[in-house]
Design goal:
6 helices; disordered C terminus; 29% strand; 150 residues; alpha+beta; 3-stranded antiparallel beta sheet
Amino acid sequence: MRIYRVTDREGRGPKESGLMFTYMAGVVEAESQGLETPMDEAEMLAHPGYASRFDGLGAKLHPDRRFGCEELGDLRRWFPSPAGCRAMTADGAIISTFEVPESCVIVGRHRVLFILRAARLINTRPALVTNMVTPALNWGPAGGVPIALL
């Protein structure tokens, strides 16, 4: 099974590496400059970060397990801001693609949990490629938040 994960060059995820803070700083700066529109309440509730709080995967977290996404579209939904993705890339973020045996993956609605030692890294690419926006990949209640293309 193919798994996609935002990491730094040492393989640490967005929270462990601080890239999540970098992403949010990029979002806030873009919003304050009027380059991006802040999410409204309905869009925030539709974001996978909110919805995944109830998927039960957090309770299965273990030092050898990591979060990722089964599809690039899900990864884009976690990081919808082009400005945030550019900021993360400038700070060293990459998209790591892993091949993982299905028996080592727990699938949730918007994310997966996988055993890192069973995963084989097959490629990496700069997270910057997520800054191309298309209305064809919208999500949210009214489809009003643009999704970055990979």
